[in-house]
Amino acid sequence: MVVSSVLQQKYPxxxxxxxxxxxxxxxxxxxxxxxxxxWSKNNQxxxxxxxxxxxxxxxxxxxxxxxxxxxxxxxxxxxTLNEITIWEFTADxxxxxxxxxxxx
Length: 104
Description:
With 104 residues, the chain is mostly beta strands. It has one helix spanning 2-10; strands at residues 18-21, 27-32, 35-41, 47-49, 54-55, 64-67, 75-79, 84-90, 96-103.
């Protein structure tokens, strides 16, 4: 599978906790300990890491990540052992991920 070869090449020695691909198969979120990297498929059908990812507090270890339905925009839900956070990508100021809510 192409995704597993990307992960093996880009995350050698890292503990990848979860991988989620959006509904269209064009974006991939990879969580590894306390960060989430976002990847996009380019026109040549290759995965390219986006310059903006999500870095969390070092004490939080992400266990799961999932994309919402596209009708809600670019929204990711993440869970640690004791909380769930919802992040939304905004194109303002070159693009960034904003924490919309956290539930414990």
